[in-house]
Amino acid sequence: MLHRRTVGDVMTEEVVTLRPSTPLQEVAALLDANDIVAAPVIDDDGIPVGVVSASDVLRHETGRPDPQGPDGSDEHAWGKARARTAGALMSSPVFTARADWTIPRAARELRSRHVKQLPVVSDDGLLTGIVSRSDLLDAFIRPDAEIRDEVEQDILGRILGLDEGTVAVEARDGVVTLRGHVPDPRLVPVVVGLCQGVDGVVAVDAHLDAAQAA
């Protein structure tokens, strides 16, 4: 079976976390020292209850709502402005991911939620990691040699059982080019489909026929 990488394969397991009682000055220092854009807030059991981002801190530090503006009577906005701890400033509820999610599923969740990262939780809700947009992008930006080896060894060899050298594989900038012979014409779309499912493959250019090699 072809291995598709999951959130668990690309997530960061050592997560910088905050507590609801963490002072904002410490929040800012932790984000800056670890060069991260956000950190999950966890309760005493290790369950994520919110997220504080660098933009939250910056908005807090750059001013309060304009009393005459659209948020002038918004108590929630004023509450954020008066925040002194991570618990008061955090965004909640927190959107989370699971380690067994596929990369495309996590990417769709990030996009639909308009967030840059998702805490990853176990079945019992405990924090096990965090996955960001850059983590997901890395899954698609793979070395061409790695893509070629997966096509040759896993798809052509292990899954389809084709003899070595039957199909020549070239990978360049994520485009896989196939040249050679397959024993049955019905295998051509199968080979193409399997190659398209390999992480990092942008397109497949197939030059295959069902004639036996001379």
From TrEMBL:
Residues 11-68, 90-146 form the CBS domain. PROSITE patterns: BON, CBS. Residues 143-212 form the BON domain. Keywords: CBS domain. Gene3D superfamilies: 3.30.1340.30, CBS-domain. Residues 58-77 are annotated as: Disordered. Pfam families: BON (PF04972), CBS (PF00571). This is CBS domain-containing protein. InterPro entries: BON_dom, CBS_dom, CBS_dom_sf, Diverse_CBS-Domain, UCP036990_CBS_BON. It comes from Streptomyces lateritius.
